[in-house]
Amino acid sequence: MEDADMPMMHNCTCMPMMNHSMGMGMHMMQMSFYASNEVTILFDGWAVKNGWQLFLSFLAIFLMSFLYEVLKVFRERYAIHVRDRSFEMIQGSSDKHTIRVHRVSRGDALVQTLLQAVSFTLAYFLMLIVMTYNGYLFLAVILGDAFGYYLTLHLRPASAGQGSEHCH
Q1: Cα(63)–Cα(147) distance, rounded to whole angstroms?
Q2: CA dihedral 140, 44, 14, 49 (to 10 degrees)
């Protein structure tokens, strides 16, 4: 195909994709922010085609981002709770030597692992939603996170906020 035959593509990258007829097709991937009520979010089944669907998707993504912040605080508080009740005092060979040993039960370890997996999954879903470059969805992620952070600020353990923030 010559340059004159190519459609105009601004701020997009063409990615080769398999189409349903098993041939190679081209899929346009947006590479700059845009405002549209037509977007596919995470899965082909979550395809937004009108303003009402966009509004409902905005609310769902806002809630996902809000829950991510709530889950972060819950994980922090649960980890402190587990740590505080999992220390054992072990007596040494003499009464002068006492050792504190940290032992986490399998149940607590399983709960912490599941919380981590859910948190990690939510974080990646939110990242992929932002990578649609849809301005409305980006705003939903940011506002949901900010609202969740604001509402849980008083619930955060005193040691939270010391050190660097990271994505999960």
Answers
A1: 10
A2: -60
Place of tokens 């089944």: 45
Q: To which residue do tokens 């939110």 refer?
A: 126
- Comparing 93 with 105, which gets the higher pLDDT? 105
Average pLDDT value for the chain: 79
Q: Within 13 Å and on the Cβ side, how many CA atoms surround 57?
A: 26
**Is-contact 54 48, C-beta < 8 A?**
yes
Q: Which two tokens stand for residue 144?
A: 């949901």
Closest CA to 27 of 13, 48, 10: 13
Question: What are 77-89's pLDDT values in tens digits?
Answer: 888 888 877 666 5
Closest CA to 129 of 25, 3, 42: 42
**Alpha-carbon torsion, ordered 78, 82, 85, 89, to 10 deg:** -150
In this structure, what token pair is assigned to residue 139? 């705003």
Angle, vertex CA 149, rays to CA 41 and CA 124, nearest 5: 30
CA distances to 83, 91, 124, 151, 158 from 162, rounded to whole Å, are: 18, 33, 24, 19, 9
